[in-house]
Amino acid sequence: MWQYTTGKVENMKTVDARGLSCPEPIMLTEEALKAGEFPVKILVSEPHQKSNIENFVGGLGYKTTATEVGSEFEVVISK
Predict the structure, then answer these.
(1) Cβ atoms of residues 14 and 41 within 8 Å
(2) CA triplet 18, 37, 30: central angle to 5 degrees?
(3) Cβ contact 63:78 at 8 Å
(4) CA distances (Å), 43 to each of 30, 50, 56, 61, in order?
(5) Residues sharing a CB contact under 8 Å with residue 10, sequence separation 6 or more, in sequence order
């Protein structure tokens, strides 16, 4: 099950989309962006999920920074 936390981790809202199938990571990312609090950290487990999120938010005009952490990825979204 996905986890959407509003607690601050490094002053970031965090969306845990690891293990979810598309389009769920994109839908959770969109929900977090609508909240309007930046930066937002998205956690995903697959390279194609990282790419999908980067393409989605890039198309909306946001900036992303992706980091590989072990076999998973963190995508930080900022304005």
Answers:
(1) yes
(2) 50
(3) yes
(4) 14, 9, 15, 20
(5) 41
Question: How much is the pLDDT for 10?
Answer: 56
Q: Are 78 and 62 in contact, with CB atoms under 8 Å apart?
A: yes
pTM of the predicted protein model: 0.84
Q: How confident is the model at residue 9 (pLDDT cuts 50, 70, 90)?
A: very low
Which distant-in-sequence residues (6+ apart) come within 8 Å of 60 by Cβ?
A: 33
SS3 content of the chain, % helix, strand, coil (to 5): 30, 40, 30
Tell me, what's the pLDDT at 8?
A: 44
